[in-house]
Amino acid sequence: MATYQQQPFNEYSSVSGGGFDNSQASAGKPNSAGGQTTATLTPVTIKQILEAKQFVQDGPYVVNNIELHNICFVGVVRNVVDHTANVNVTVEDGTGQLEFRQWSNDQKDIERASQGEKGEYNSEVSQQFQIGSYVKVFATLREFGGKMNIQYALVKPIENFNEVIAHHLSAIKCYALANGKLAHPTSAVGTGTSTGQESNAQSLFVQDNDFSNAKPATQRILDFCRDQCRDKDANTFSVHTKLIAQSLGMLEDDVRMHCQTLTEQGFIYPTFDENSYFTL
């Protein structure tokens, strides 16, 4: 079993003071301002995850009036413990740290684990993590054995530190909306109920061109994903960026860029890998 460690959070963190103050959190279920559906992807800090409580058996975890179903958080990899078939990864974001398990899909790792071989061995899954690197984790919160567990974790490496800042800003916005410190948006994406001028003003996405009747590429991708995912199970189905590119006549690199925007906006999330998505 190999173990890698590093010292605490460094000076590049965009978070200070330990995340959000949980003193105003409701002792019951979240109010309507923070009510979430099970399909919601919620950006959070690690401190919020650690302070979340389950008020109803088998119900969602709640923190700061926000129900946590599908979550995402960012942080620095601080520790990796290699168990061959899986690794335990410790991530820290300046507000706290937590550990989650990532399973290997590599055939060599699985065979070696099943044979019970001992000795030094660096599994393929452990080599995906570099100590000191930033990652973004998509996961769900589940109770098991009386403890909170991070399940179905999908880890994406962060190559641009702006992603870290953007995530914390999204977490702040989510907190402010749930606690009445920020007004809720008055319109939804793609409702088609407003005039062209109003639609452009209220849209969450930047128009790709000036054609009055053309939908922006991001909206086209979202509509396509929604059609593909309708009545499907996220555990067995996903929409790949290659399929989107071929169906919509776009470059796959452009599709990946727009899918990243939709992920950050909370409309889709990656599933089996970073190029496969399902709608929320």
UniProtKB/TrEMBL annotation:
Pfam families: RPA_C. InterPro entries: NA-bd_OB-fold, RFA2-like, Rfa2/RPA32, RPA_C, WH-like_DNA-bd_sf, WH_DNA-bd_sf. One of its GO terms (biological process) is establishment of protein localization. Residues 1-26 have a biased composition (Polar residues). Residues 188-275 form the Replication protein A C-terminal domain. Keywords: DNA replication, DNA-binding, Nucleus. Gene3D superfamilies: Nucleic acid-binding proteins (2.40.50.140), Winged helix-like DNA-binding domain superfamily/Winged helix DNA-binding domain (1.10.10.10). One of its GO terms (cellular component) is condensed nuclear chromosome. Belongs to the replication factor A protein 2 family. This is Replication protein A C-terminal domain-containing protein.
